[in-house]
Write a structure and sequence with these properties.
By secondary structure, the chain is of the alpha/beta class. The protein has a single domain, classed as Purple Acid Phosphatase, chain A, domain 2. Helices cover 21% and strands 36% of the residues. The strands form three sheets. A six-stranded mixed beta sheet has the order 4-3-2-1-12-13, with helices on one face. Strands 5-6-7-9-8 form a five-stranded mixed beta sheet, with helices on one face. The protein has a two-stranded antiparallel ribbon with strand order 10-11. The protein is globular.
Length: 169
């Protein structure tokens, strides 16, 4: 099974549509959103794909997501840390805005996969037995107060061959 990983959508609708289209083209079995949806409508758009959604809220999110997903049977959102399991892989999803907490998750040894965002920089790293994947930013920008344009990206993780990949959108 292929897992889709997205983060930091920040209501950039054109790129959100591209990210969802890419996930559908790749036929991912589940999408993990690492936070910073920024609007309830973004959550609704992902929930309407028919793909199972798992995610967390980021530092730019208000506590509105649970309300928006009522009635959806295969959507699960956590306010801080989400734990999941797929094909004997223990997965943690955390936005990443508290770097100390993120490092504790990674160093705990409890997870095979840690999906995070916040930095808007795409990367895949191995930390002992844990693979850490930051899909980058669907938004396509980073930095404050001056925003710099970067290539929007998502990531996938293949449970069959244990390989992750960053995909530019």
């Amino acid at each position: 099974m292929l897992l889709g990983i997205v983060s930091d959508t920040h209501s950039v609708w054109e790129n959100i549509d591209k990210a969802i289209t890419k996930m559908q083209q790749l036929q991912v079995g589940r999408i993990y959103h690492c936070g910073d949806w920024t609007e309830p409508e973004v959550m609704q758009k992902f929930a309407q794909t028919g793909i199972a959604i798992r995610g967390v809220m980021g530092n730019c999110d208000l506590n509105y997501l649970d309300y928006q997903i009522r009635g959806k049977t295969d959507v699960k959102i956590s306010d801080r840390l989400l734990e999941d399991r797929q094909q004997n892989k223990k997965i943690a999803v955390y936005h990443g805005h508290d770097q100390n907490f993120l490092q504790k998750i990674i160093d705990s040894g409890r997870y095979d996969l840690v999906f995070c965002g916040h930095t808007h920089w795409a990367q895949i790293e191995q930390h002992n037995q844990t693979i850490v994947i930051n899909p980058g930013s669907v938004m396509g920008y980073y930095g404050r107060p001056v925003r710099k344009k970067i290539q929007p990206s998502v990531a996938v993780y293949n449970l069959n061959n244990n390989q992750g990949k960053i995909i530019k959108i």
